[in-house]
Amino acid sequence: MNDRKLNKKWLNKERFPRTSRYDLEWILANEMGPNALWLLEDLTSKMSLDSGMKVLDMGCGRALTSVFLARECGVKVWANDLWVSADDNWTRVVEAGSGEQVCPIQAEARNLPYAAGFFDAVVSIDSYQYFGTDDLYLGYITRFLRNGGLLGLVMPAMKQEFTQPPEHLAKVRESGTAFWDPSECWCLHTLEWWKRHLERSGLVDIELASYVEDGWKLWRDWELIRDGGGFTGFPSDAETLEEDGGRYIGFVMLVLKKRPRDPSSFDHSIKIRL
Ligand SMILES: C[S@@+](CC[C@H](N)C(=O)[O-])C[C@H]1O[C@@H](n2cnc3c(N)ncnc32)[C@H](O)[C@@H]1O
What we know:
Blueprint: H1 17-20, H2 24-30, H3 36-44, E1 54-58, H4 64-73, E2 76-81, H5 86-95, E3 102-106, E4 119-125, H6 137-141, E5 145-158, H7 167-170, H8 182-185, H9 191-199, E6 204-211, H10 215-228, H11 238-244, E7 249-258
Parallel strand pairs: 1-2, 1-4, 2-3, 4-5
Antiparallel strand pairs: 5-7, 6-7
Helix pairs in contact: 3-4, 10-11
S-adenosylmethionine (SAM) binds at residues 31-33, 36, 59-61, 64-65, 81-84, 108-109, 125-127, 130-131.
């Protein structure tokens, strides 16, 4: 971050009173997706998480969302990530005062070290698209949920499927980068795509499936906050989001409830393909 002054009020949005209480610099220094806390606050206002529940925060990045879940919902969190080490996340979690409630684990999403039926809920913000497009992944991840447990997902999405990305997403910008990075973006899908992908498994009931209201605006506003603070960790997507105006880019939110099933019937998990 450079020395341009951050205006803490930028975080204040009436829609997200809980996130407004967090330190903007802390979020900017540790975020890995476009404000994960807004997305999580939206999700947790619709997904019931009771105090004391055991929650897997899948693809937690630098564990901002895990701290939020512990503080705001009173749940116990297993903060699971691949790229960020457990050491790194543990330091941050302790500094945030959540050491009693958050347990960081570094593990690949397809090779998890948990017991079948252990979790009451799995939450994944800005991450599920990296592994969850695999046809067999839902069967694997729900193995770790108790029957009736919830899976809450929020991730960047497209409003239309296409075979070639639209020009305004693919063009190279002044930063020398394009919004549409083919090595990362083909996992972005529409709400319809996700519903079909998840529903046909017969493993879950869909409790909620929608685009996040004004998702592209939230993303743009977050990019403007980062730009205003002089944060240079990732190239800004603000202009592309403005140009797109929500035609293609948004976020999907899904809450799924696990149907009853015998965990021993899923021992042939996709882990064997690693
Ligand atoms: C865009 S970041 C989002 C992190 C965090 N949820 C946030 O919004 O700040 C995506 C995260 O997904 C995790 N991830 C990607 N592929 C993974 C995999 N195969 N197993 C576990 N985690 C994975 C990465 O380690 C990364 O931290």
